[in-house]
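Technical annex B. To support the medicinal chemistry partners, we prepared a structural model of the target in complex with NAP, based solely on the information shown next.
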Amino acid sequence: MSTAAKILILGGTGEAVALAKALTEAFGAGLTVVTSLAGRTKTPTLPLGEIRVGGFGGVPGLTRYLREEGIDAVVDATHPFAARITANAVAACAAAGVPRLRLDRPAWKPVPGDDWRQVPDLQAAAALLPALGSRAFLTVGSSELWPFKEVPGVWFWARMIEPPAAGGLPETFTIVQARGPFSLDDEEAFLRRNRIDVLVTKNSGGDAAAAKLAAARGLRVPVVMVDRPPSPPGDGAPGIAETVEWLRPILR
Ligand code: NAP
């Protein structure tokens, strides 16, 4: 492996943090691992290795960055719903001739006992809600509350890591600030305490946020599940181990 090997991880997820650790352990000091964060969260969980923060400036900016920094490979470990940076990575890596892998945690799938309504986007989720319940547990990002502001007859408990910008939310909203992972006991207690009768979530996949689905199943609470955007073309891996194996020949 060349001492100049340098990997860019597009991060902002638990997988990105775990990958930086796994790569550091697998390839040692001969590999420079840079994780890029969008800078949305004030107190992010910081990965091992180097960190850069903030947008690149679209496809041209990311292409320039890859060339100037001599990046040997890119792992797109961003959230499954972060569609713009994923599309930018496809285009920029093609332009710069840099191999790219999408680390895509598997989507959640319904199991017996689940009552899911799958919808294509947040607006469709909002439109469906009044027919399903009146006390909704909303687990979407702080910038994604707007489709739910005008939903008639529904009260919302919206859980997020950081609160939305002050003002602008109707009295039907209660903001619950918390960072996962959450246990099944915690989630069941939350649903019972707030008498939640419908859950709204994006199909993020992964273990850290899955307990709410088991809690909803146990309490027979329907789930409005927002489907993922399509996966990008090209190489993909479901987990850390497969990603490390994909990188081995590139770094040799
Ligand atoms: P997005 O809509 O796909 O990206 C919007 C813009 O933010 C991109 O064009 C890029 O700016 C910048 N950006 C996004 N991720 C970046 C990264 N890792 N490093 C540098 N710049 C980045 O993304 P988003 O949905 O707002 O998500 C932002 C970040 O939060 C992502 O890193 C994602 O992993 C994390 N996150 C997202 C969600 C979600 O539900 N969307 C949930 C949890 C965590 P330029 O065009 O200027 O480069």
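Notes passed to the chemistry partners:
The chain has seven helices and twelve strands.
The radius of gyration is 20 Å.
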